[in-house]
Write a structure and sequence with these properties.
This protein has eleven helices and seven strands. The protein has 284 residues and is of the alpha/beta class. It has one domain: Vaccinia Virus protein VP39 (Rossmann fold, 3-Layer(aba) Sandwich). A seven-stranded mixed β-sheet has the order 3-2-1-4-5-7-6. Helix 5 links the parallel strand 2 and strand 3. Helix 1 crosses helix 2, helix 1 crosses helix 3 and helix 3 packs across helix 9.
Length: 284
């Protein structure tokens, strides 16, 4: 591969798709994404093979995918979400692979190039629900607000997804995104993943050269509470470390780290627990 390993944020979508393919091909898979290998492409597998600790990092993306799947299905089935808007949708294939109701409206938002690539790769496939793709740079504040206003006027109970997005924003952009989402009364839930400042620093050391073109920026010390002043209340916070044990997809040497945790202070154990979380927020 010539040039930087990760040329832009869209390359990280190819990288993560590899992990979904890895899980899919296990006999005891927690989910099946038959499109992941196709969407990752040769470039995705090259990235996953080449980045430091690439295979060892798979557990976190697999667990995150499981948790997003679970919380999306619950919010649609139990709570009656009628629209899902997936920000920075990347190469996600949930509208094709999840057991979603046909009447559900699913809106994918991302840069034109990655959405065109996905549309071509999935051209022969049929989504299980109503699918709309919106090519848009989320950094364009006016275009973003216009899209949110349109969706907000057309829907009654909207669930927002931002899987793998917030870590690339700076705190001010995360704040303005939260404000823009809250401006729409029909936007009821927001599902996100967050990393702690400690994890951001650790990953910067590990992947500084790899992510030079797509650096990690956002890891609020207060976790999901960062968004409360902007109208979003944490409803459910799940630690990836804890969920990984439940799902039997733990990181290498997890039992050893758990033993160390028993010797640590309560504050330090809470810090470990909060290093990486999946968070469901509701409109306050």
């Amino acid at each position: 591969m010539s040039g930087p390993l990760i040329e832009n944020v869209s390359d990280t979508a190819r990288w993560v798709a590899v992990y979904r393919a890895m899980e899919t091909e296990r006999p005891d898979a927690h989910f099946r994404d038959p499109y992941a290998r196709r969407l990752a492409g040769e470039r995705g597998f090259t990235i996953a093979r080449t980045v430091p600790a690439g295979k060892a990092s798979a557990w976190a993306m697999i667990v995150r995918t499981c948790l997003f799947d679970e919380l999306i299905l619950r919010t649609v089935e139990r709570d009656g979400a009628d629209t899902v808007i997936n920000l920075a949708a990347g190469l996600d294939a949930r509208p094709y692979r999840l057991a979603l109701p046909p009447a559900l409206r699913w809106i994918e938002v991302d840069l034109p190039q990655i959405l065109a690539e996905k549309e071509q790769a999935l051209s022969g496939e049929r989504p299980v629900c109503t699918l709309e793709r919106v090519p848009l740079d989320l950094a364009d504040e006016a275009a973003r607000q216009a899209l949110f206003a349109r969706v907000g006027a057309e829907a009654r109970r909207v669930m927002v997804l931002s899987e793998g997005l917030l870590v690339y924003l700076d705190p001010e952009h995360a704040r303005t995104l939260a404000v823009d989402l809250h401006a729409q009364e029909s936007f009821r839930w927001w599902l996100m993943d967050l990393s702690s400042p400690q994890l951001i620093k650790m990953l910067e050391r590990r992947w500084k050269k790899t992510l030079e073109k797509a650096p990690f920026r956002f890891g609020p010390a207060e976790g999901a509470e960062f968004f409360r002043p902007f109208g979003w209340r944490p409803l459910e916070v799940r630690s990836l470390l804890e969920e990984a044990r439940r799902l039997r997809r733990e990181m290498p040497f997890a039992p050893f780290y758990r033993l160390l945790g028993l010797l640590a202070s309560k504050k330090r154990r809470e810090g470990f627990r909060a290093m990486s979380t999946t968070n469901l927020l509701e409109r306050a």
